[in-house]
Structure formats: C-alpha cells, structure tokens
Amino acid sequence: MSDEKKTISRRDFVKGAATGLVAGAFASMGMYSYTPWAYARLPEKKRTPQDFGTCRSVRVTNISETSWFNNAHLIGDINEAGGLLVNQYTLNWAPMANGKGSAKGSYEEGISTIKDLLPHHLEKAWEIQKKLSLHPDNPGGFSCLLEVEALDGTVRKYLLDTGWSYEWMDACFKREGIDQMLRNREIEALFISHEHWDHFWGLPVTMKYDNRIPLYLHNGFYKEGLQYVKDSGYKGAPVILDKTITPIIPGMAVLKFDVPIINRVFGETSLAFNVKDKGLVLISGCNHQGILQFADLAYTSLKYDNDKFYGIYGGLHISPFEDWDPKYDDLVISLGKWGFERIGCNHCTGHLTAKKFIEAGYPVVRGTARFRSSSPDYLGNGDKITFG
C-alpha cells in the first residue's frame, strides 16, 4: 500500500463491511486482510522509503490487554442488537447506556447520566452506568505505555489507547504508575488507535490525571466520538490525523489506515519505530487493517535500519474470540515471511494464535498470565517487552 490517500465514504463502509460478511462472520474485522487472496490483490508498488529518523530502543508496558472478560457475553450482546454492523453507541454498554435494553442505546441519553461527573468522579459515574448497561462487569480495556529511547539516551513516554471500563482502567493505571506519570506530565501524548469501545471509551481515566495531554485521532472518528472527547473533560485540541504517515519524533511515526471495522467504526492508526542497528518495529492496537497491509505500507513507504523487520507488538486480530479453523493456519504462515526477531502479541491476537506462533517456532516473547490475563503464551497485563 503506497502513501497515496484513498477516500472511502461512509456508504462505502457499509458496502465494504457487508461484503466481508459474505466471506465470513469476522472477515470485516481484518481476517480477510491476512489471507493470500487479499495479498494477491494488492497492487505492485515501487518502494519510496521515507526517512523518519532513528531511535535507540522501544519499551512496551502492557497496562491492560484484557478488553473484555467473557466472549459469550460480548458476542451475544452484539448479535442480539442486530450484528456486526450495528452502531456501537446503541449497544447499551457502559458508559453509553440508557437502561432501555439491547439496541436501544443512545450516546446522548447515555452520557447525560454521567456527564457532570467526568472526569473527576469516575467511581460514581461507573456505578450509575453499571445499573443501566448490559453485562456491566464485562468491560476491561486495551492500553499500553511506550517508552522511546532517543539516540542521546533521553526517554520519552507515550500512551497507546486508554481502555474501556473506568473501574478497571483506573486500577490498571495505578498498578503500573500511569496515574502519577500523567499527573507529572511525563507522558507526552495519547494515541487512540481507533474508536472502538475497548480502546477509546476509557478516555475519562486519562483525563482524570491529565486533561491537556496531546491527543491523536484518526480522521474517521464519528460525531459521537468527537463529542465524547469533549464530554470526557478534555481541554486541548485533538490532532486529527489525515495523512498516511505522520512522523512524531526521530524514529517514531503514526501510520493511518482507512478501513471499515465492526460496529460502525472507521479507520485505524498504528505505530512504526526505526530502532538503530536492529530495524523496524510495528505496534498496533487491534490491527484491523491486517498484518499484510500494515507490513506492506511500512515496507514500501518507510526507511529503516538494515532494511529489516525487527519486532511487532499488540493485537494482531487473528482469533480475537478464541475460535480456530484449520484454514487460519495460513494466517500464521503469512507472518513468518517478514522475519520478525521479536514478537509480542496479546489482546485480539488470541491465545490460540499465540500457541500456533510458538508451535511454528516464531520468536514469541511469553508472559506471566497475571492480573486476569488468561495465558502465559502472550504478553499479559503488567508484562513488558523491549525492542533494541
């Protein structure tokens, strides 16, 4: 994929997602993007690598990868509401619930019950919403801390995503000391990978500790999402990403993908790092664009040391609901072609996929299965990985 901007309308979102559903229930969640058929359809592109600098290392602390605790409840709620194309703000999940039941939610009604409490009275706000929402104890969240070491030894800190449950994420922030880092303005920016519940709806937890932190959003956010930024107590002006590649600091860049995602979400951003003498590191929230498009854009558009892919971290979106079909083995094989030396996976990668990676002999960095993470085969809550 080149850095040419591709415009996709909201109408195309429905069309694209519906097409994916023909191929399979979760095709529109990025599954198709991993297949050889999808890769074959990518046009041949001449490499035009952009120099975005170099850093010495990247350290990732997994604040929370457990976005929800019960697959059956999550899938059941979505199906009961009408399926994968239903607007997420109508699902009647906290903190957007109005107490009217499945598919009868409304952003305006839901947020009105707690708006005056955000962001400083999160416990009270969450207790109110738990009484109005479906499966109120299911939300968790995805979020990680990135510590980027510059060539001069300076370490700069960033957050990728801010989770879902106010209750869960506040506890996770305190467990990893993120609350104090935010209070001290040690964290330079928050990147929201996409508008989904489990990556974005916990925004008031970050705002509780730093409501002026620079905030980066994909330009596909809907009006509800942009309003939620304000209602969460944010006092800054979000940076709306509208370019395919946005350099942040030497050796760090945001990559933007315009892809339709389930529950009426559009677009995802991921991060790329050039680690000195090692090569390229790719970090994603969910990777709905698929590993092939993620890797292809990086390969054709970025300049990195040794011209080599070095590491990858995050949700890779292969078996997010721990379902497995033998044909998915092709997806595992497709990862091997890039030659990553360090693989840190979790969240929507699924622990079954992590097991497959290990069985295939891939250099997977394993975790400790603490703090309600379900498997030591991937990097769970509280685990860390360093690239470089």
From TrEMBL:
Keywords: Iron, Iron-sulfur, Membrane, Metal-binding, Transmembrane, Transmembrane helix. InterPro entries: Metallo-B-lactamas, Metallo-beta-lactamase_dom, RibonucZ/Hydroxyglut_hydro, TAT_signal, TAT_signal_bac_arc. The chain crosses the membrane at residues 12-34. Residues 158-206 form the Metallo-beta-lactamase domain. It is found in: Periplasm. One of its GO terms (cellular component) is periplasmic space. Pfam families: Lactamase_B. This is 7,8-dihydropterin-6-yl-methyl-4-(Beta-D-ribofuranosyl)aminobenzene 5'-phosphate synthase. It comes from Humidesulfovibrio mexicanus.
